[in-house]
Amino acid sequence: MGVEMKCESEIIMIVHSDTAQQNTSSFNDENNDELITCKLTCQNTKSYDHKINTTNNRSDFCDHWTKTTCNSDIESINDRSRIDVTLKLKDMERTESSYVFYLSSVQMNGTEIPLKCQCGLKTFCHISCPNKDMMRIATVPAYRGNVLNLYQFWIFFMTVSAFWTCVIIAVTLQNPICLDILEDKPEDYGKQKCWSSFGWGGFSIFIGWLVDRFSVGKKEKDYSPVFYSCILLTICNLFVINKLKVTETKKSKEKWKSVYGLFTKHYVIVFYIWVATNSFLHTIITHFLFWYMEDLVSANNDHDQRAWLKTLQGLAQGIQCFGGEIPFFFWSGWIIRKMGHINCMAIVLGAMAIRMYLYTVIWNPAWIIAIELLNGVSYALGLSVKMSYAKIMSPEDSTNTIIGIIALFDCIGDSLGSLLGGYLFYSYGGVWSFRFFAYGSALMCLLNILSNRFGLTKDLKNCNFVAVSTTENNQKQ
């Protein structure tokens, strides 16, 4: 985005910004009296005074500026498209949606242009300015229309939808394959899953560093290494899974009847509510934590920290994996056997509450690296509990169906988390949003403990649902 120049009784420069009124720390007061010279490249001059005889796409603002008359018969129009303006930051007014700068001087092709004018013209320009604060507010786009009318939005929407469709299908298939390999030890699911954390953590650190390296000397971050590496890794992944041997199991004629019977059990219903809640809270972190880190860096106004922000975010994900997920994935089977699935469900929600609350009491985003150690309890242990409990309660030959239903509840939690999280972060900011969800997670943890206390949940032993159902029927007889 550029700026708008207007020629009314005097020449002014306007920078539109949706956050102009709230952004009271945009400029350094000590340098407000300093003269700043900015270069403008202008186009698409328009008249809003119908008495003036002018045309669109003129490069000069007004013939008064060029010491000629206001008409379209002017030679070398393109030579007048570059304008130098000199201003002081103190000669600026904020409105609710813009910064208005009153100029000290205007030069066109080295010729001083009078600041007073009688023309009703405006033009839109791209700006190049040595002042970093000026460039920051002038280069942030502020689209004021309906985003649904943009074709770019729909391209992005379809791309993201296709991506997540593929991800959900892949996860829904790989989890039952992993559980089949484990056979009668589903609580050891974490030992298999920890290898994915090696890849996720390692590449997060490497790609974060690579993005910062490719972005040196650039105004915006260069994310091309992310896309190129994604293509390369997808090709490697397709080669590996092509070598994977999958054993097909026989279909059970009573599968759907058994699956339907699951939802008559109160502890199964409570389990799926826990699944949706856990996915909801995890989505808040995965979708909004990096934005929150960027907000902290902006609030600190630390340029060195901003330059290596992607590396810091990569380190945060690396700690999530190496410091949190891998240890708890590896020891999740032992923890589940010692504490039981139901107690672990409450611990997961409690850890999530502590984790989100800690985000709100720090001022330096580097502390998030330490907080991410809790990802082992709030995510890794939770995923192991989810998959192993699903395997145990699944009717015979119905593991894929049960895990598919879990994926459905995961998607419900993800969707609600993205929608509500986006609204709260936009309306109230990161601190109060994370604090709100921390309180919500603590409340759900308390409800989970109460449901355990009153027998609404049940720890299933390491056997399939058919065996459990048979035992229950024998006890009733």
Describe the protein's topology.
Elements: E1 3-7, E2 11-16, E3 35-47, E4 82-94, E5 98-108, E6 111-113, E7 121-128, H1 132-138, H2 151-182, H3 189-214, H4 224-241, H5 255-262, H6 266-300, H7 303-307, H8 309-339, H9 341-359, H10 368-371, H11 375-393, H12 399-453, H13 465-476
Antiparallel strand pairs: 1-2, 1-7, 2-5, 3-4, 3-7, 4-5, 5-6
Structure commentary:
By secondary structure, the protein is α+β, with helices and mostly antiparallel strands. It contains 13 helices and seven strands. It has helices at residues 132-138, 151-182, 189-214, 224-241, 255-262, 266-300, 303-307, 309-339, 341-359, 368-371, 375-393, 399-453, 465-476; strands spanning 3-7, 11-16, 35-47, 82-94, 98-108, 111-113, 121-128. α6 packs parallel to α9 and α8 packs across α11 (375-393). The termini are far apart. The model is unreliable at 49-61, 66-80 and 462-477 (pLDDT under 50). It is a multi-pass membrane protein. Residues 151-436 form the Major facilitator superfamily associated domain. Keywords: Membrane, Transmembrane, Transmembrane helix.
Class of secondary structure makeup: alpha+beta
Shape label = elongated
Radius of gyration based on Cα positions:
30 Å
Number of strands: 7
Q: How is the largest sheet built, in terms of strand order? A: 1-2-5-4-3-7
Query: Mean pLDDT, rounded to whole units?
Result: 76
User: Uncertain segments of ≥5 residues (pLDDT<50)?
Assistant: 49-61, 66-80, 462-477
- The ordered H/E elements are EEEEEEEHHHHHHHHHHHHH
Report the total helices: 13
The separation of the N and C termini measures: 76 Å
Q: Which percent range fits the helix content?
A: 55-70%
Q: Main beta sheet: strand number and arrangement?
A: 6 strands, antiparallel, barrel
Instruction: Classify the beta-strand content into a percent band.
Output: 5-15%
